[in-house]
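User: I'm new to structure prediction. If I give you an amino acid sequence, what do you actually give back? Let's try with this one:
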Amino acid sequence: MSSGPRSDWLPAQAGDQSGRVAVVTGANTGIGFEIARDLAGLHATVVLACRNHLAAESAVQQITATHPHADLHTVQLDLGSLESITAAAGHMRVRWPVIDLLINNAGVMAATRGRTSDGFETDFGTNFLGHFALTAQLVDVIDAATAGRIVTVSSITHRRRAATVDFADPHYAGGEFVPDLAYARSKMAGMVFMVELQRRLAAAGSPALSVAAHPGGVRTNILHHRSRLMQLVYSPRLAWATGWFTQSPAEGALPVLRAALDPAVAGGEFFGPGGRGELVGPPVPVAVSRRALDPETGQRLWDMAQEMTGVPFRIPAAPNEPAAGKRQGPE
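Assistant: Good question. You get back a string of structure tokens that encode the predicted 3D arrangement of the chain. For your 331 residues, that looks like this:
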């Protein structure tokens, strides 16, 4: 059943999360930090999966100052390195044989053409391929949970007309590099993945759900490579002037937390702020781009991601269900 139009949802309504394990990528700063802090306050076991180990440990100390009895752990994870992803996933699988929540939050917004350590364009490789590879290597332990959930943190930029998946040149090998467009396309890829993953989970009879959320116009440091004007607009120091279209990381975390915790959420749903331009306001269901819903695009992107990463994505089949590797069609 859909969660409907309610806009008064708060994390406390999800109730105590004791005994549940939540992995949050990029949890040392911004909305990832706020997500981790809220989950810790609800007594979940929270794994901060971050590229910078020292920053992750600092985040743990900050959360512990607010929640002294929080069950917090750190795992070193560089989403721009398949080697790091495999090592992190292997560690988590052994340490936590059942993972209830995987929140794919970490992201970059490159200012210039760049490459990950595996040769992928920075935005596409980190924001999409990195999370694809991580999810593929954890999907069975998420499937093992009673109500596992995989949350893709996206952006309203995925709805831009030009935010297509460029199958011919996904890594910007040729042509002009346009930073905003590269970011938007990486977020479109993430949304196509979210929808296709839900199709495959449903076809496999898995109890897990694939959902998404976007934080709106959040004042975080993801824009530190952008123009000075853009940095000023989203600076916390100017919140008094820009608060009508920007919001704090704590407020931006709410759509993600609702997608992760609201028991009424349906697979494939997308949450965002319900106020002005979806930039501010309480968390509500919002629209997914129709292009992200296309099954052929989903199949093609899935196959391309497996080939690029070299990571097979196999969803465990439920008893008396066909293997998920043999796609059964949409939900």
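You can read the tokens as a compact description of the fold. Here is one thing that stands out. Confidence is low (pLDDT under 50) at residues 1-5, 229-235, 237-245, 323-331.
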